[in-house]
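Hi R.,

Here's the chain you asked about this morning:
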Amino acid sequence: MQPDRKVEPLPAPDRLDSWKEIAAYLNRSGRTVRRWEANEQLPVHRLKHDKRGSIYAYTRELDAWRDSRRVVVEATADESLSTPFRRLWWAAGALLLIAGVVTVGLRWRAVDAEVAQRGTTNAELARRGTANDEAWRLVQRANFGANAGRVQIETGIRYYRQAVELDPKFARAWAGLATAHVALNAFGEHPPSYTMTEARRYAEEARRLNPSMGAPWRVLAMVSHLFDWNHTLAETQFHRSIELKDNVALSWYGDFLTDMRRFDEARDAYTRAQHANPRWLEPSIFAANIHTFTGQPAMTIVEIQRTLETEPNYGFGLHYLGRAYMASGDWLMAIEHLRKSNDVLGAVPFTLGDLGFALASGGQRDEAGRLLQELRARRNRGYYPAFPIAEIELGLGNTESALNWLESAVEERNAGFYPPSVDPVWNAIRATPRFRALIAKMNLPS
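And the predicted structure, written out as tokens:
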């Protein structure tokens, strides 16, 4: 299998060409941004011919990183802002440590020379999965994080592709590409015939290269579920991924169980995912969202508000809080939170569809109509999913048009972030024969 064509670099005006420029852009010292690059995956590039110098960065990638690490950024005290007393303290400490540093430095230099001569250990190579240092660095950079948005995911795809170009046998890079394309599919701006086909292709390659890796099975399960509508096979693949200790699979399995209306099992899967990774906000948000599906949106509101105390600008949290208000009939609060989530998540199809539905249902029909026309115009210019158009049409009371667009959405294999089998947005047409036929076509429970 040949790796994808290398992604072209971003335009020059977006590029910063020194640590000084990067530090100035982030309003931090050079020491701080270097530490972030080492410990927090700050997206800094190095030219391949020079591992220590010739660094550069792109402002849009820095912006995406800053959004995803907002807690780290705001909590980091900048060395360049130290008080004069702190500088005196450091100066005095430096004088006291000079003798020791010189002695220990000689020792370190000898150890570094020994390590360089010995090279990376076999155990380290086994853990990393590649002997290519640059490919390994790119994969660490590409890990877009559990709470990432669309920009981070697209940036991650670029890094994963570059890693595969450097080492075509790097299974972790292929698995990362597969995962990123499933995540990209959720944002709905590329046809599933592309995102899910690519996800399957990358997952199969990762599984071929490393049969003991759980991530490829998790990706294949989601493709089977959302694209093939083979839910029996999907569940088998999810179980295999979980057996192989892939903790992300626990949350994705929760999504699958939610879609299948197996809500108690879904809560259990989300709880296990939370325990495996307490800093991952998605499982707690999605678990809270189950209350909305079972007719208890007030409980969703309480649980999501509690989660948002740790990360007030978490896009999915704001979005599902807005949907909970929508389900409770509080249109003003629904619109307020859906506007916020739309801004944070980048005006993607599922945020625009829900916002348009809330505007229409909440009496702001003119704005909903303008949004509907805008989405239709986008679809006329190229691919744009049908489901948000169907959703706004339904909010405006155009039932037949909504069903027509929903049928198109099902044909595209993209009927929304949640399928119609579970999404309460479609409750007004749930009993119609055409809607029931769509659910049956997707092999989903009615």
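The longest helix spans residues 84-118.

Let me know if you need anything else.
M.
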